[in-house]
Specification:
This protein is mostly helical. It has 2 domains: 161 residues, Helix Hairpins (Orthogonal Bundle), CATH 1.10.287; 73 residues, no CATH class. Helices cover 82% and strands 4% of the residues. Helix 1 packs antiparallel against helix 2. The structure holds zinc ion.
Length: 246
């Protein structure tokens, strides 16, 4: 059993390394996704602002048309002023001219204000276009780097997968089943050292009888609290020393 446990520790080291590589791949991928969604957001903001700009421009066109009409109207009234015959009529037309002139002034102010809004919006659109351009370049560069890194990680994982397969072949099926079962149920290690009558993984006490069994190394012993397969820490130290000497 002690040899089986040593093999299992090796397998676990490989599996943990694989887990870590998988996590790093996911991190890289999620950073890329984040950048892309930021870019998408900026692009849709830009699209919205362009639409706004078009709306304001068409409003200004409308106001300018109104202004033309008002000016024609004013001209007509001013001509009419020469044709009136009574003082009352004259007053009425003069009153109309006053109202139209006020409308013209107001509309001119509106046109001017819309012009300012258009200028501001155009500047902001330009800023966004620049920012998007820069961001696109940054993302393309980052993507290139990420792809290289991902390929590197894939290669590392492939090598580890081969080592994992070899290691699994050496472990007995019963031990392997147990190991796989624990790994499928928890994120923590599936095999953990026991020291001073404690599981080093969850620090729960191990009953003396069980601890003696573990030291003897005749059978598979698991922690009743965290379910990890237990090995006696000194066995691992001896094993590592042998490995170092070999
Ligand atoms: Zn435990």
């Amino acid at each position: 059993m002690k040899e089986q446990l040593a093999l299992l520790r090796e397998l676990q080291n490989i599996d943990l390394e694989l887990d870590e590589l998988e996590e790093r791949k996911e991190e890289i991928q999620s950073r890329l996704d984040e950048n892309k969604s930021f870019l998408t957001k900026l692009e849709s903001d830009l699209e919205e602002q362009r639409d706004e700009l078009e709306e304001v421009k068409s409003l200004r066109r409308e106001k300018r048309r109104e202004l033309d009409e008002l000016e024609q109207e004013l001209e007509r009234r001013q001509e009419k002023l020469h044709e009136v015959e009574t003082a009352n009529e004259y007053d009425a037309v003069e009153k109309e001219i006053e109202v139209i002139s006020e409308d013209i002034e107001e509309t001119e102010e509106e046109v001017e204000h819309l012009g300012e809004v258009i200028e501001d919006t155009e500047n902001s659109v330009e800023d966004k276009e620049d920012k998007i351009l820069q961001l696109r370049e940054g993302i393309a560069k980052e993507e290139e780097e990420a792809e290289a890194k991902l390929a590197e990680l894939d290669e590392e994982m492939q090598q580890l997968n081969e080592r994992q397969e070899e290691a699994r072949e050496e472990v007995s099926e019963r031990v392997l089943r147990r190991y796989d079962f624990i790994r499928s149920r928890s994120d923590g290690p599936a095999i953990a050292p026991a020291k001073d009558e404690h599981c080093e993984q969850c620090f729960m006490a191990i009953p003396p009888q069980k601890y003696i069994e573990l030291q003897r190394g005749d059978d598979l012993v698991t922690c009743s609290s965290c379910q990890a397969i237990l090995y006696y820490y000194e066995d691992a130290e001896d094993y590592e020393e042998d490995e170092a000497e070999a």
